[in-house]
Amino acid sequence: MDRRQQKTRTAIFEGFGRLLSSKSYSKITVQNIIDEANVGRTTFYAHFETKDQLLKELCSDLFSHVFSENLSAESTHDFSMRTGNPQAMITHILYHLLDNKQNIIGILTGESGELFLGFFKQYLNELMAPRLLGDTGSCGKNIPYDFLVNHISSSFVGLVQWWIKNRLKKTPEELADYFMAVIEPVV
Amino acid sequence: MDRRQQKTRTAIFEGFGRLLSSKSYSKITVQNIIDEANVGRTTFYAHFETKDQLLKELCSDLFSHVFSENLSAESTHDFSMRTGNPQAMITHILYHLLDNKQNIIGILTGESGELFLGFFKQYLNELMAPRLLGDTGSCGKNIPYDFLVNHISSSFVGLVQWWIKNRLKKTPEELADYFMAVIEPVV
DNA sequence: AATTAAAGAAACAAAATGTTCTTTATAAAA
DNA sequence: TTTTATAAAGAACATTTTGTTTCTTTAATT
Fold first, then answer.
1. Which of B138, B155, B161 sits opposite A155 (nearest CB)?
2. Which of A145, B20, B82, B129 is 20 to 30 A (C-alpha) from A74?
3. Nearest residue of A to residue B157 by CA position?
């Protein structure tokens, strides 16, 4: 793919990311993005149909990265999280949120954090929650399986919200402990 | 207060509510609201500074109603939910969501449901979660109290999301059972 | 019936949107 | 290198939305 396209795409993502940590999604205009990314108007619309589309693609980028390596699919060689060891998996995801070159925490901290966590939850529903639950579901208590999946995802989103609200004053390891404590009885 | 103001305010709320069940918040323009509510432009701006302001006030209206009667504060004479009996409390809230003349389910079902559940969570944090937890916190496991409060609120929001996603194909009683099953070990 | 306050209509500048066209720069292929 | 093709920039445009203003009409309170 053309290097120019790559550069433009990156510039837009980065500019958008910077804006998102300083103002809310709904208040960000295409004009702002154009100015911040320093690209032409035409160029923006050549890459993204709308601001909403940009948002979606950014989320894909962000979260597919978070869930990538080892975590998704069976491609993993890391036996520590192949079966069991949910603790490791959770810590892993949280570090991924922290780590990144991209601006995930910045974006999540901004006014539109909730919006992103909405997308995040979709990924959790597909990639994390089902791996925490056995195929079994919980305690045979007659609770729908997808209710439990949803519960775990919601709880994880809640965890992240709490973490951010408390200005990251906890390590991923501590958080994993908390999470397991409230979720373990279910899985 | 002047009846005219009341009528206008109601007209705007209702029109806005109708719009919200058919299109997403971000795509709704002030012009749409004006047309739908059938009030003058000037009138709208006399009542609400911005669309965001309208949103906030609508949420206040909606959720303060849901949490009102008996539920909030000590003003309750309903001993069934004064202490304990969380089951009753949850069922109660869920019925309130269903019941209403207002369009809560419609709004929650619309594209901006998440947005509203964000506001909803704030109310839960203040009014529901702390009453489910004793003053004690959980199992003495060294987990921050406000983490647990947040966990419960997140879980409840998740429950409502799941309920809506499944087109309300569960009774509040059933949902309360599910909720207690996943949350009881914590409280 | 007189006073007060709200609603409605019309018009406005400013900003944002999405599109079209031309020119310039950059990458890939020969 | 030279050629070819394609992406980006820039400018201009009609539309739409926004938030305000001015003025008139209508309804409530006293």
1. B155
2. A145
3. A154
- End-to-end C-alpha distance for chain B, whole angstroms: 44
Measured in whole angstroms, how far is the alpha carbon of residue B177 from the centre of its chain? 20
Of the candidate ranges B3-7, B89-93, B126-130, B132-136, the one whose mean pLDDT is the lowest: B132-136
CA angle (B60 as vertex; B58, B62 as ends), nearest 5: 65
- Residue B82's CB: how many other CB atoms inside 10 A? 13
Structural domain boundaries of chain B?
1-48, 51-183
- Of A137, A139, A119, residue with least CA distance to A127: A119
Residue pLDDT, tens place only, A55-86: 999 999 999 888 876 555 444 444 445 456 88
Fold classification of A1-48 (topology level): Arc Repressor Mutant, subunit A (1.10.10)
Q: Straight-line distance from CA B12 to C1' D22, in Å?
A: 24
